[in-house]
Amino acid sequence: MSDLPITRDMFDDVMVPNYAPAAIIPVRGEGSRLWDQDGREYIDFAGGIAVNVLGHAHPKLVAALTEQARKLWHVSNLLTNEPALKLARRLCELTFAQRVFFANSGAEANEAALKLARKYAADHAGPDKREIIAFTPSFHGRTLFTVSVGGQPKYTEGFEPLPPGITHVPFNDLAAFASAISERTCAVILEPVLGESGVVSATPEFLRGVRELCDRHQALLIFDEVQCGNGRCGHLYAYMGYGVTPDILTTAKGLGGGFPISAMLTTAPIAASLNVGSHGTTYGGNPLGCAVAGAVLDLISDPELLAGVRRKHAAFMAGLRRINDRFGIFREVRGKGLLLGCELTDAWRGRSRDFVKAATDQGLLVLVAGPDVIRLAPSLIIPDELIEEGLRRFERAIAQLLHQTALAGEESAHAAR
Questions:
Q1: 224 included as an active-site residue
Q2: In which pathway does it act (predicted)?
């Protein structure tokens, strides 16, 4: 059995069918390139869904992991460890935070943030202040609590009954939010830049207004920066570019550069509500993850690297607009830093996955952000020449898809005659 070849077909035989991976299986990565089982090369504009902020097999991350692997792998939360303490201290130095909780994924960080908000309200305001306000569309994870807060029926259908006490209002609609928030609201959670839900940025006026209303109603403001944080938007965390500081911030994805780790950041007075035994996780803060994340943070907090993200954003935007000038298929090209979204025109709505497949055929990996948006989330240090080559491949992919669609239309018209 162990000698059987590893193929994409094996996925369908042994894995739960909750994913539909592409036909290729990558086996090696270096920088912003991947190679599959057949040795074919791909330029990576997907970044493991905004995870590989420093590309594949970055030597400093490999060195950090290798060094720590020779020392200590796991001790549980019954003991602390040096890499966790170093990473927590550095996160506090670089952000508004005074206290850090480590977990393994974005969903777990958001779960911790939401539990903390309700616990803090229970400690300070009593049982009536339990409502959580979130925005539609949004995505905060796949646990039952976080998927309920995300509020998208396609992710909650079949998992009812859902946790109560959650209200949803439209993203970027300050008037609707002002009507919804009340003294019963214990927390408000939002993504400064929507990731899965179309790469839509919050307006500065919206974030400032949300902050002011949270203060007025003594509600905690949670920023979900699982995808838009860790240098992705051209600042270490997106809130810094807006000048609006949350009470709690969640981070994951790029924090480990590919190694599973997440964190919840907050202030000391708020953190005090998670007293001993009130929350926990077996693997959160393990030495391996924290050692790698420490190396990531050292690199992505460099002002030169962050300035490079903003410069590369301009190069991507110019290239995507040139492509659109030729084909006219994007209603809008948007995003911050190296989190970019290309929204398809009405004629192409619902076909974002077709563009992903066409790009793969041309040796380029891209993402979707819903059925109508193509998403790009490359390494923050992708070389300029790979940006240009990747955009050329993207242009060829679009030309190929348009040609195939036109041929299919002609064949259909001919058959109808």
A1: yes
A2: Amino-acid biosynthesis; L-arginine biosynthesis; N(2)-acetyl-L-ornithine from L-glutamate: step 4/4
Same fold, 8-57+303-416 and 72-300: no
Domain 72-300 CATH class label: alpha beta
| 21 cis-preceded (ω within 30 degrees of 0) | no
What's the whole-model pTM score? 0.95
pLDDT in tens, 193-218: 999 999 999 999 999 999 999 999 99
User: According to the annotation, is 106 in a ligand binding site?
Assistant: yes
pLDDT tens digits, 40-78? 999 999 999 999 999 999 999 999 999 999 999 999 999
| Catalytic residue list contains 36 | no
* Residue from 119, 253, 312, 336 carrying the catalytic annotation: 253
Q: Facing residues of 187 across strands?
A: 132, 220
Pairing of the two strands 364-365 and 41-44 = parallel
The verdict on whether residue 41 carries a ligand-binding annotation is: no
229 belongs to an annotated ligand binding site:
no
Query: In the CATH hierarchy, which top-level class contains the domain 8-57+303-416?
Result: alpha beta
